[in-house]
Input
Amino acid sequence: MAPYHLFHATVVRIEDISPSFRRVAFTGEDISDWAHGGRDQRVKVLTRSAAGTLPLDLLGEADWYGTWRALPDEEKPPMRTYTGREFNFAHETAHGADEIVIDFVRHGDHGPASRWVGQTFIGDEVVLVGPSARGAGREGGIEFAPPASARRIILAGDETAAPAICSIIEDIARSGALEGLQPVDIRAFIEVPHDQDFLPCAFADHPRVKLSWLGRGDGEHGSALSPAVKNTVTSRVLHECSIMCESSCIAHSDSVQIDVAIDPFDFTEVDVDSEILWDVQPPSDSVDGPSCYAWIAGEASVVKGLRRHLVSELGMDRRSVAFMGYWREGRSEIG
Ligand SMILES: Cc1cc2nc3c(=O)[nH]c(=O)nc-3n(C[C@H](O)[C@H](O)[C@H](O)COP(=O)(O)OP(=O)(O)OC[C@H]3O[C@@H](n4cnc5c(N)ncnc54)[C@H](O)[C@@H]3O)c2cc1C
Output
């Protein structure tokens, strides 16, 4: 696994791409070392502490995380998790330097990251934590890892997952997996606050991609996403999926070859108020594995409901689902 590295970065571009999304591009002296893995590449953003300090002395420190944790609250820069939406090389950018792009959801002043994004300016400084090309091995921070056998990909999430879902669709399309003898089909759902938040996503009009943007309007989180996923991903769909590759992705089949050390049918409920719902399995190279793969991310109670539907009610093989309930309504991300 490539080590995560701290990058001193500066804001070079700010664009309000919709009422709820602000796109911010960052550059920095060593940003060309960024080992952007695409898909749902995770990025940590550290903004100034309450005392106005940035942790530049952590750059290059091996145990930066331990040092960061030990800082007194006043001096501790808030650290929040985002998705690298794009990595653009210098020759592709107007300012002539490599840049990493993040699409931030603006949800008011309730959290330090959302507050920061509402006030940021060109030249503002942050510290980004991401995979470094200086390390050896596979990049870290990517959870989208369908088994080699997967032919139908289901993606679902709220606005915080929109950058990852669009990147995943684009990367699958660019890899050529939507073409060929055994092409992949993608069914994706993204719930956003408003209809004006439906964002451009390359390849969304490909015949093998069906992407539904769902405006929540005055409804609660999940009020558009949950019924859409439940009405679409039914036992019939999972059964068709099992036929597609002549091997089952549904429970109660004796033909499933278990090649990872987990019980695919061992389902545990997670108390999203005291634990993080993060149920992600390692990738499998097996071509005889499940032919459906689902990646679901967003507000924890919504993800929990979808996990229950897919795994407990429909019996979907846990090896073929990644569930990430990474933010919880009414609670701050720790850090
Ligand atoms: C792997 C991963 C990838 C992510 N990718 C992205 C991304 O690309 N873009 C993005 O915007 N977010 C993304 N998120 C979610 C983001 O980390 C959280 O929304 C985070 O809580 C924001 O921090 P904050 O400081 O603004 O709020 P916090 O201090 O964490 O929370 C303060 C309050 O705001 C509420 N809150 C937090 N997020 C939201 C929200 N989106 N809408 C409404 N209320 C909210 C909390 O419930 C809490 O009450 C990702 C999270 C993970 C784990």
Observations:
- The pocket of flavin-adenine dinucleotide is lined by residues 42, 80-83, 103-105, 107, 110-114, 160, 163, 326-333 (CB under 6 Å).
- The first helix runs from residue 64 to 70.
